Amino acid sequence: MTSNAELIARRNTTIGPYSPLFYNEPLQMVSAKGVWITEANGDRYLDGYNNVPHVGHSNERVVRALCEQAATLNINTRYLNERVVDYSERLLSTFGHGLDRVFYGNSGSEANELALRIARQHTGATGLIVSDYSYHGTTISLAEMTTGLKTREPLGAHVRTLRIPDLDRDERPEAEVLADTLAQLDAAIESLQEAGFGVSACLFDPLFSTEGMPRLPEGLVAAIVARVRAAGGLVIADEVQSGFGRTGTHMWGHDYAGMVPDLVTMGKPMGNGHPMSAVVTSEAMLDEFGSHNEFFNTFAGNPVSAAVGEAVLLEMEEEQLMQRAATLGERALVSFREFADRHDFVRTAKGSGLFLGLDFAIDGKPAPQLAKQVVEAMKQRKVLISRIGRDESVLKVRPPLAFGPQELPVLLEALDNALSEV
Ligand SMILES: Cc1ncc(COP(=O)(O)O)c(C=O)c1O
């Protein structure tokens, strides 16, 4: 086994030292199965964090589908292939609201980039509105609207930000918080129009994951959607984190949030680790974009990706993973609330399905160091979790959806002990 120190040194002289690593002492992983990951020294970790291996690490059905299709045919979409159409029908059958067409991509970034391009063409405007603490990807357009990274490029002149409130952290009456947020949005829209950019789109994650899963004022999301549309803009739901049944209650984050977007983007869990993504939209939107642009993406929507995507959906269905996420999430939240009652520094427990958080604060101020200590203490107990939010003070528990009832007590016991230790 190559020592961590040696591997880090080699990594620094190839990939470079800026590509982030988790933990004070990074983990060198060598294999994984289901919701367990094995470190190079043989230690096993319970995965309470990773959302990409949605139906489980090295899932048999997915691996088999991938290998069989790769051994049979992998070819671009300029040739007819039934598997690609089968998968598209299956994927689209999970949507409502006339969202019945799909463009494929290879990453969440690509999906968001395409959604922005479609919105720009549809509206003839270039102005964009995003949450003031969010991340949507790596391209130039997305880098210009990234607000949720520590080191980043300046915002584009055509970008305005909106602070998403959290009622768990805001002492003001809910109506006042709502009115204040909408006033900010109105000002952003007005400013884009005055500057001549107009409003092309508002892009947000319906769960506001990066923001730390804030508790929103009633009616906020609906009001954002209505105002953006009234200004001529489109609404893009970035479901890279919130989609594929993550919330337990709904397959899609926009349904969880009670909104109907014009475009839905997805990635990460879609291929269980195989790189694939998509933009789902209406027939009218696809026709408009497609008829004005010959759009072709070499690797996107190929038969291997379709086979993998189909295996993910079948596995979810047969193992009833979304329903399981709902049940386990509810059970976990009961314990999380107990932790919040027991420990002064836990301000609140939050989340839905298998996306759960504990918000840490001391004397009413966010406590990121404490959250970091708990993440490290969990690692000592061989459970992987992380933290999110603008202050990185919200503990982030977001395991593969394949997480089972037998694993939940392991995670809860470790968390109980870690919270008592710090
Ligand atoms: C909400 C959200 N959107 C988009 C992306 C970008 O996806 P990718 O890294 O696959 O390009 C991410 C990645 O972290 C994300 O969390």
TrEMBL record:
It holds the Pfam family Aminotran_3. The keyword Transferase applies. One of its GO terms (molecular function) is transaminase activity. Keywords: Aminotransferase, Pyridoxal phosphate, Transferase. The keyword Protein biosynthesis does not apply. Belongs to the class-III pyridoxal-phosphate-dependent aminotransferase family. This is Aminotransferase class III-fold pyridoxal phosphate-dependent enzyme. It comes from Leucobacter viscericola. The lineage of its organism: Bacteria, Bacillati, Actinomycetota, Actinomycetes, Micrococcales.
